[in-house]
Amino acid sequence: MSYEPTLESLQSHQVPAWYHDAKLGIFVHWGTYSVPGWAPLSGHIGALVAKEGWEAVFGKNPYAEWYANTLKFDGSPTQHYHEATYGADFPYAAFAPLFNEAVQAWDPEAWAGLFAQAGARYVVLTSKHHEGFCLWPTSTPCPRKVGYFSSRDLVGELADAVRGRGLRMGIYYSGGLDWAFNEARIQGMSDLFTTVVQEPEYVAYADGHWRELIDRYRPSLLWNDIGYPAAANLLDLFAYYYSLVPDGVINDRFPQAPQLEEGVELSLAELQDRIVTPHRDFVTPEYRSFGEIREEKWECCRAVGFSFAYNRNEGEGQYASVQSLVHMLADVVSKNGNLLLGVGPTADGTIPPTQQQRLLGLGQWLATNGEAIFGTRPWVRPEGETRQGLGLRFTRGDGNLYATLLGMPSGSQVSIRGLQADPAAEVQLLGGSGPLSWGQDGPDLVLTLPGDLPESPAHCLKITPAPRG
Fold first, then answer.
1. How far apart are CA 469 and CA 466, in angstroms?
2. Fewer CB near the last or first residue (10 Å), C or N of the chain?
3. pLDDT at 265
4. pLDDT, tens digit, for every residue of 59-92?
5. Are 25 and 373 in contact (CB under 8 A)?
């Protein structure tokens, strides 16, 4: 199918079934920032913003992939670490050859195997983050920094490896920020828009990169970040992509920031009013979810820890538990979302053991309960509760209702408030050996669980046929 560079043509593109069905992706942040692999332990970025505001965040950013920007704050923890470890005269760009040396040890098949074991259905890799270093040997090299790209085709090798496991490959690209072109320090929220590179040379550069990535790798997702130059013809780029990858999807982070005349300053609200987002297939809340079922497809992105990229300071205290990841996935899926879960490899491609343990724990749970997640759709309401106060998340699929109990029941009998099953319904525990005995106590469904119920982050009930609501 051929698409035209018009909104009418692009909006005829429907979110494909594979993306609705996939539910779980892996988000890999890997680049020159993985060499220092350092950020202060500032905690959850949302909580930090709520407590201290955006102006305070950038000087102690918990995202290690922002190392090059945080380094510019005099007296910051990152600057202290950098000077003590590498010296005050060591430029950020000098991490590039160290990264290229380290990646020679990387095994893409090991990643693909781990991601498949985790139950993921797709993978998104940072082909170029804000520092501007490319993870593929691009034919459109950076005019500001010679050889500022990977000596190995990290994008292509990972694409081949994950597709060999039946997973889809997506590509992240920092389209608005590129610190090789604009080195201005970002110290406030409005700077995210005003430092978007607007030069004609960069417009052609970013467009050339995206088309090269599309031509070479045929990604299933275009995952842009933090805006795009105002002069770029995104409708043409999107039509080009859909025509080559008809079942591809495009995220919501291509907003075209306004190009301001010299000396003109706008408030954050005024800047946001001028931003144009021409087209999208899904929205991408970061480190947060929604409280209700959303008609528009969405994808929650967050890392296992508080940094997307590898942060050597993070450990058990910063990583989400397997139970919290299971609950998060069940919650997101119940509201029409996918979970894009981030891991941060070291420069040589090693995914830290604790991160691997979290992925494998999630995959172990999905091996038993994936039927309640993959290929499902939201029910009439996303949430419920037992009489004992245990939370529930609902999904539906193939005529069944799935009720995921968020935790271990306190006894063998469970009463689900406000759920009435068909008199002939069958209730099963996923991973169990047969139907459960159940009855109706007024508006509540009462069922008896096996006495030897195993410990699990969550248990899933399958009710056939699905109640109407």
1. 8
2. N
3. 61
4. 999 999 999 999 999 999 999 999 999 999 999 9
5. no
Q: CA nearest 116: which of 344, 356, 459, 327? A: 356
Instruction: Please state, in angstroms and rounded to a whole number, the distance separating the CA atoms of residues 101 and 35.
Output: 10
Burial class from Cβ neighbours inside 10 Å (0-12, 13-18, 19+) for residue 442 reads: exposed
CATH topology of domain 7-372: TIM Barrel (3.20.20)
Place of tokens 């039927």: 371
Residue 57 DSSP one-character state: H
CB 297, CB 22: distance < 8 Å: no
- Asked if 225 and 253 touch (Cβ cutoff 8 Å), the reply is yes
Characterize 110-127 residue by residue with b for buried, 16 or more Cβ atoms within 10 angstroms of its Cβ, and e for exposed.
ebbebbbbbbbbbbbbbb
E strand residue ranges, 310-425: 337-343, 383-385, 391-397, 400-405, 413-416
Helices (DSSP H) in 227-279: which residue ranges?
234-244, 268-274
Collapsing DSSP to helix, strand or coil, 82 comes out as helix
User: Residue 47 has which token pair?
Assistant: 């909580």
Kindly state the percentage of the chain with pLDDT values over 90.
89
Beta bridge partners of residue 250, listed in sequence order:
222
Give the CA radius of gyration of the chain.
23
Q: How far is Cα 71 from Cα 187, in angstroms, rounded to an integer?
A: 12
Query: Is it true that 7-372 and 383-464 share their CATH fold?
Result: no
Residue 202 sits at the vertex; the CA angle it makes with 198 and 207, to the nearest 5 degrees, is 110
* CATH number given to 383-464: 2.60.40.1180
Apex CA 74: angle with CA 267 and CA 58, to 5°?
Answer: 40
Given this model, what pLDDT does residue 273 score? 64
Domain locations in the chain as residue ranges: 7-372, 383-464
From 428, 426, 438, 388, select the one nearest 408 (Cα to Cα): 388
